[in-house]
Amino acid sequence: MESHPSEIDIAAHPDDRIGSAPPRTRAWRDGRIEAEGFPVAELSGYLARPDVVVWLDLCGPQHEDMRVVSRELGIDPVAVEDAVSRHERAKLDRYRGYAFLNVYVPVVTDGELAMHEVSAFLSERAFVTVRQDCGFDVDALIRRWDQSPDAGLGEPNAAFLLYGLLDLVVDLQLAAVQALDDEADAVEDLVFDDAFPVKEIQRRSYRLRKNLAALRRIALPMREVLNTLLRRDPRIVPAPLVPYFQDVYDHTLRVGEWTDALRDLVADLLETRLALQGNRMNEVMKKVTSWAAIIAVPTAVTGFYGQNVPYPGFGHYSGFVASTVIVVVCSLALYVIFKVRDWL
């Protein structure tokens, strides 16, 4: 397994065998990295220093694994329960001295949408992320922190770490909406394709609507989360970081609006599919009716001449020739008429 600088060496610290992946730790001092990869038990020691901000990442922890974290950071058991349980609603809860955040990271692969749940505890100088699985790329989050020149960590607070997480999550939501938009374009091409594969259109349009509904369920609560951070609880977000969070909020609105627009587009595509299917059915009925009319002529002629009564040419070869000529001429005439009218 690839080693990361911020991962704890489990061989050297077996007590930190928490979750499905090694925990990751980092400490900043005056905006610079002070230490990383240190044991979880040393979190309280770093927090005892008033000029240090710490980060801890856990992947797939169980309830008993969170005891050491709860002891080091003083996390409420209710918040711990929310962090380890799955399928919690995207939300932001306030506790005494810290806040609990729960968000979802969508990933679209070959038209299939997967959701990765990420929780976070935020205090003034501590930031703890809890991933339910390894689907969320925490290295991308670290790169976003490291590549941001305006880290805002000169003053001891973890608000910028929260901003980096929310910014990455919303960007991934935008990427998921873009992937679903591309899928909608593919469905649109199928709808107007001459082959008109009905089963394929139904399968992909149903999957697309289901994915859009799932994405909307996690995008709408993000508005509440950002709105709470910006307007209802100014203690979490310091004034210098308000424009940063406002930018994330604008992107969240775009995710919701884009999702709603795609849902309307898919509904329009389904209505268009039904209309086109009705038009194709009318074309088929016109062709069937036209061929039935063409076939009716020889049927009528042969049926008429098949009566057991004398008729012109009865019993003679000339009568057979006359009936054949009538059948061919009338059938060709009807075919030409229907073809000119685009019924065939």
Description:
By secondary structure, this protein is α+β, with helices and mostly antiparallel strands. It has eight helices and seven strands, in the order ββαβααββββααααα. The protein has helices at residues 43-47, 66-73, 77-84, 138-146, 159-191, 198-232, 242-305, 317-340; strands spanning 21-29, 32-36, 52-59, 91-95, 98-109, 112-122, 126-131. It has a seven-stranded mixed beta sheet with strand order 2-1-3-7-6-5-4, sandwiched between helices. A hairpin with a 2-residue loop joins strand 1 and strand 2. The protein is rod-shaped and about 120 Å long. The mean pLDDT is 83.
The end-to-end span amounts to 66 Å
Q: Strand arrangement, largest sheet?
A: 2-1-3-7-6-5-4
Principal-axes shape call: rod-shaped
**Major sheet summary line:** 7 strands, mixed
- Name the structural class: alpha+beta
Approximate strand percentage: 15-25%
From N to C, what is the helix and strand string? EEHEHHEEEEHHHHH
Radius of gyration: 35 Å
Note poorly predicted spans.
Answer: none
- Count every beta strand, where a strand is a DSSP E run of 2 or more residues: 7
| Proportion of helical residues | 40-55%
Overall mean confidence score, pLDDT: 83
- Helical segment count: 8
Q: Notable features of this structure?
A:
rod-shaped, 344 residues, single chain, 54% helix
